Amino acid sequence: MREMFQQELSELQDRLVEVSELVTEAISKATTAFGESNVAMAEEVIENDAQIDDRALSLDELAIQILARQQPVARDLRIVVSALRISSSLERMGDMAEHIAQLTRYRFPEKVVAKGLRGTFKKMGALDVEVAETLTKLLKTQNLKHADKLRDIDDEIDALHLSVFDKVLGETWGGTPVDTVDATLASRYHERFADHAVNISKKVKYLSTGEWASDGTAPIDLP
Amino acid sequence: MREMFQQELSELQDRLVEVSELVTEAISKATTAFGESNVAMAEEVIENDAQIDDRALSLDELAIQILARQQPVARDLRIVVSALRISSSLERMGDMAEHIAQLTRYRFPEKVVAKGLRGTFKKMGALDVEVAETLTKLLKTQNLKHADKLRDIDDEIDALHLSVFDKVLGETWGGTPVDTVDATLASRYHERFADHAVNISKKVKYLSTGEWASDGTAPIDLP
Fold first, then answer.
1. Which one of A3, A27, B55, B176 has the fewest beta carbons within 10 angstroms of its own beta carbon?
2. How far is CA A39 from the centre of its chain?
3. Of B57, B156, B44, residue with least CA distance to B100
4. For residues A142 and A127, what is the distance between their CA atoms, to the nearest angstrom?
5. What domains are there in chain B, each with its CATH number?
6. Which pLDDT tens digit goes with each residue over A58-92?
7. Is B67 an interface residue toward A (CB < 8 Å)?
């Protein structure tokens, strides 16, 4: 029974990594499409979001089946419950990528990023991709150094998010209301994408250390 | 054992209703503070959000304890897992109320709502309060007529959300970039608040009918 349980947990972990890889592809294409006003690529991201939703839903079904079949308790139970929550956050990260792609499509053939903000959004986009890649590594290895890295990247993204508002509300901003709306929403989506990843990393850390948002770096044996 | 389980599920339901009531108070005060630039009321909402988070966390702990102690299967298991998800959505609704309050505080003593949008945000705020009240009734009674009502109110809120963008991007909009940013963010928070409630109602419906997003109106015996 125990061996079967370990196998099922391992399957659950593989599925989380798989969804995280799909999310990485989505945010990579979404931020590229956003920067280049590439409407075909944006549409691909929008279309593929259903696949992320499906994979997350099927992962949830597996987690519920494991709960029913294996009746885990204590830490094992928390691992399965955390998988459900991580799945939900990954699904939302996919939605943020889709929202960024939708902004690109709405404004096409106009550029969605106003001139003065291209460099900022290029950085935010690259950091969001790094967030997704780091999250995949964290889910694969449970090595908490990746959680620490996520927190650091998130700080950089938060600073860029604030700088977007500084720009838009500053005296030199010559953007139209459309530019202002787009910058506000796009910045929020980029920032929320990273927030969800940090939330996931807190759950992984919690399983390792037993403390929410702990800064501990104890090794973790999450299967 | 079965009787104990029913008692614990009933406790879980009471806790969901309790958090929903706290969220109702939060959105009611947040939207009032937003409309009136009442910074003291906004600060109360911001301060009280920690209480919502705490209550949601303790509800989650209860759900995990029920899973460990009662080892539910089939529909009983799905009820407990759904409670975890509903709790998470309620917690996010509290965050949306907090964000609306934060916008109010940031701009104080300036008014956060631009002149041309006061009527729209007044309506959106009143509808968000109605959403929270209807959600509490749904969680209390599991009567699916409340789920249908939530969907209808959500449609109204979505229409108002779109009308905010029409206004801000229209030719008569004389707002500053600050007005544009605030309207964009505030409208998004109001709209997301209702989305979370609709997501919760889908979970309640699912428990009743076995189908996600079903339009069925079969009676539900969720304790």
1. A3
2. 22
3. B44
4. 21
5. 2-209 (1.20.58.220)
6. 999 999 999 999 999 998 999 999 999 999 999 99
7. yes
A68·B73 Cβ contact <8 A: yes
- pTM for this model (two decimals): 0.92
Encode pLDDT of A190-222 as tens digits. 999 999 999 999 999 888 765 543 333 333 332
CB of B64 less than 8 A from some CB of A: yes
Token code pair at residue A180: 């202002």
Rounded distance between C-alpha atoms, residue A84 and residue A15, angstroms = 11
Name the token pair of B85.
């998800």
Q: How far, in Å, are A58, A82, A196 from residue A93 at the CA level?
A: 17, 16, 7
Exposure string over B102-139, b if 16+ CB within 10 A, otherwise e: bbbbebbeebbbbebbeebbebbbebbbbbbbbbbbbb
What ipTM was reported for this prediction?
0.90
CB contact under 8 A, A173 and B178: no
Q: How far apart are CA B47 and CA B30, in angstroms?
A: 12
The type of residue at A48 is N
Question: Between chains, do B180 and A180 touch, taking CB under 8 Å as contact?
Answer: yes
* B199 vs A: CB within 8 A: no
B9 in reach of chain A (CB within 8 A)? no
